[in-house]
């Protein structure tokens, strides 16, 4: 995954905030348990996945990303953990990272910055409808292959 692209987009989206913010990726984030003083939000987006074992590609309109955010005297930090999915045709295939388009990353991070404004700066924000570019996906949701379901945060479970 091109995390540098996420960081560049995040830097651009946060330039109007009072403090400087950075985006870090942290595989150890516990979705329901932010550290003391940290705020949490879980956002969904549309993503593609590719099985590294069999090469199967699938799309999901409910790929989840967990964000923890913290504002301190030196600025703000947002930590991200994109949640993985597992191929439904490989019995022992690994959990795979999502691949999110630049347009959907921009929408995802715009929603994150809105949450930062609300949760870290106590601003009241009017909800703006932002729509992801979704996939024409008729496949049923597979809770046994969804890390968000395993973590108890998937809206489908």
From TrEMBL:
GO biological process terms held by the UniProt record: protein insertion into membrane; protein targeting to membrane
PANTHER family: RECEPTOR TRANSPORTING PROTEIN, RECEPTOR-TRANSPORTING PROTEIN 4
GO cellular component: membrane
UniProt keyword terms in alphabetical order: Membrane, Metal-binding, Receptor, Transmembrane, Transmembrane helix, Zinc, Zinc-finger
Membrane topology of the entry: Single-pass membrane protein
One of the record's GO molecular function terms: olfactory receptor binding
InterPro entries linked: R-trans_p, ZAR1/RTP1-5-like_Znf-3CxxC
Record keyword Coiled coil present: no
Pfam entry (one): Zn_ribbon_3CxxC
Name of this chain's protein: Receptor-transporting protein 3-like
Location of the protein in the cell: Membrane
